[in-house]
Amino acid sequence: MPLISVLTAAHGDRADFLVEAGESLAAQVLPAGWEMEWVVQEDGEKPQLADAVTAFGFARHEAHGAALGAAATRNLALARVGGELLHVLDSDDLVVPNGLAVSIEAFRTRPWLHWVCGQADDLMPDGTRVPVSAMLPPGLIEPGMVSDHLTAYELPPIHPAGMTMRTLLTRAVGGWAGIPRNEDNSLLIAVTELSFGYLLPEVTWLHRKHEGQITTGPLYSDLVPTSLLVVRQRIAALREIGLQFPPPPPEKKAAG
Fold first, then answer.
1. What is the DSSP letter of 78?
2. I need a labelling partner for 172 at 20 to 30 A (CA). Which of 131, 149, 164, 196 fits?
3. Over the Cα atoms of the chain, what is R_g?
4. CA trace torsion 14, 228, 134, 6 (10° rounding)
5. What is the model's pTM?
6. CA–CA separation, 237 vs 183, rounded Å?
7. What CA–CA distance (Å, rounded) separates 81 from 87?
8. Residue 99: which residues within 8 A CB-CB, separation 6 or more?
9. Which residues, in sequence order, are CB contacts of 113 under 8 Å at separation 6+?
10. Secondary element (H or E) of residue 100
11. How many distinct helices (H) and strands (E) make up the chain?
């Protein structure tokens, strides 16, 4: 049976959020014949999440017993996944009930795709949902479009946490770059610069807003400029080398 792997890097202080993430996965209704695994890699010197994760029968937990950071933790999880498709779920976010199914269907109808990204709603502390404005129209996204937007605005037009990718490509580009910030954008750029993808019109995930978000912490922004330089260098290098997957076949016109 085809398998989709959901990858989560987590820290011990996120147990409550992680359980909610697991519950959102348990509510998924996958297309016929598909199965799901949840691969959780715990970062930190004192593992605490095994019981919370293994309560879900589709989940596998591993802790490396050291503080390695998000990029290394995700890469260790990547070594453990078995699915042909890979969805990255942050420990404090949620997938809406049909989120994985919609992404899988996009790959089924367009087998030449290498990545699919869904829309998001912000999940506010009071439980309300606020739509996030899309920066690109839904549909086919050509190689380089995401990089162009990031170069111009220092912000990607799609969120890495909403992506489902082919596992083979994720491994081929080396997973997440070992930088302290923007490690998710480094992977996003590598995948979207090389291959065609698809931006879904549907909301597939919820981006939780809360006081403990790492990206809003006082020390987070200090290392952003240098990390962003690494991402820009990756864009330039990929373009200079000229690597790219072949374009998709032309869409068939409906009969009549």
1. H
2. 149
3. 18
4. -40
5. 0.93
6. 17
7. 10
8. 28, 118, 203, 204, 205
9. 106, 107, 195, 196, 197, 198, 248
10. helix 99-109
11. 8, 10
Amino acid (one-letter) located at 105: E
pLDDT digits (tens, 9 = 90+) for 206-236: 999 987 766 655 656 778 888 999 999 999 9
With contact defined as beta carbons under 8 Å apart, do 60 and 37 qualify?
yes
Q: Do 149 and 155 form a contact (C-beta atoms < 8 A)?
A: yes
> Where are the domains positioned within the chain?
3-241
* CA pair distance 222, 17, nearest whole angstrom: 26
The three-state secondary structure class of 136 is: coil
pLDDT tens-digit series, residues 115-148: 999 999 999 999 999 999 889 999 999 999 999 9
- Residue 183: is its pLDDT beyond 50? yes
Measured at the CA of 127, the angle between CA 122 and CA 130, to 5 degrees, comes to 30
Grade residue 60 by pLDDT with cuts at 50, 70 and 90: very high
Per-residue pLDDT tens digits for 29-48: 999 999 999 999 999 999 99
Task: Return d(Cα 122, Cα 193) in angstroms, integer.
Answer: 27
How far, in Å, CA of 188 to CA of 193, rounded? 8
Q: What does CATH list as the number for 3-241?
A: 3.90.550.10
d(CA 75, CA 22): 20
Per-residue burial over 212-231, b if 16 or more Cβ lie within 10 Å, else e, is eeeeeeeeeeeeeeebbebb
User: How many whole angstroms separate alpha carbon 173 and alpha carbon 182?
Assistant: 16
